[in-house]
């Protein structure tokens, strides 16, 4: 949704992070794969091959509050795409929250916003 606002190096870091999060539970669902492809298309990275960067290297790429907000919001969409928040995904999201310096209120606000967007999308799809 807002990924086009990221700088080129942030876009690459984001797709690396999204791939890492999507596969953290050991199962890349069809929903998660579809979202990864959507992300690549949105960021003009269709032919990008995931390199497997380390989480710490990825997270250090994002410097601004805006970039960090975009990343966390988009990751919520990814982890909720299959309807299940796996424990490993939750742990990673919480690690990102902590690294980025978001407090619990901000974190819950992002989560609620993504839940509402998903709910509206489901209603429109009927």
TrEMBL record:
Pfam families: TerB. It comes from the Bacteria. Residues 62-110 form the Co-chaperone DjlA N-terminal domain. This is Co-chaperone DjlA N-terminal domain-containing protein. It comes from Neobacillus thermocopriae. The lineage of its organism: Bacteria, Bacillati, Bacillota, Bacilli, Bacillales.
């Amino acid at each position: 949704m807002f990924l086009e606002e990221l700088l080129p190096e942030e876009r690459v870091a984001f797709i690396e992070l999204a791939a890492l999060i999507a596969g953290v539970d050991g199962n890349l669902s069809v929903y998660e794969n579809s979202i990864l492809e959507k992300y690549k298309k949105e960021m003009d990275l269709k032919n990008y091959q995931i390199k497997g960067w380390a989480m710490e290297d990825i997270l250090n790429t994002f410097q601004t509050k805006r970039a960090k907000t975009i990343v966390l919001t988009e990751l919520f969409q990814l982890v909720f795409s299959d309807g299940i928040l796996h424990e490993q995904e939750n742990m990673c999201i919480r690690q990102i929250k902590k690294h980025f310096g978001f407090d619990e209120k901000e974190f819950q606000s992002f989560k609620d916003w993504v839940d509402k967007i998903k709910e509206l999308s489901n209603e429109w799809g009927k």
